[in-house]
Design goal:
The protein is mainly β and 113 residues long. This is S-protein homolog.
Length: 113
């Protein structure tokens, strides 16, 4: 019996903010990458294997100053795969071989006492 094929993917999150440090925290059901500091003009990336059922999901929470943003970094089989996410002052944009710039989420302000 043949082994099910496992697809390995890479996701990149780049800080394109104007003079702001970005905090990125990405996770799946099984893997938590922890909160990482992404300096201005830098990026972080990770590789993962899509499970045989095609149900792997990854999502990320972003923070900069008093703003937060959450987005789905990988939505599983049947969803478009965006391997690159560029974080700008107005939100995060996904990029793949078909779509050059798709808005994935906008910043929202949080109240800080």
């Amino acid at each position: 019996m043949a082994q099910p094929s496992i697809q390995e993917l890479t996701v990149h999150v780049a800080n394109k903010l104007s003079n702001k440090i970005l905090i990125v925290h990405c996770r799946s059901k099984d893997d938590d990458l922890g909160a990482l500091v992404v300096e201005i003009g830098a990026e972080m990336s990770w590789r993962f294997e899509v499970n045989a059922m095609g149900s792997t999901l990854f999502w990320c929470n972003l923070a900069v100053e008093d703003k937060r943003l959450s987005f789905e970094a990988y939505g599983g089989e049947g969803e478009p795969y965006y391997g690159y996410f560029n974080v700008y002052d107005d939100g995060v944009y996904g990029k793949n071989f078909v779509t050059n710039k798709k808005l994935m989420g906008r910043w929202r302000r949080i109240w800080v006492p």
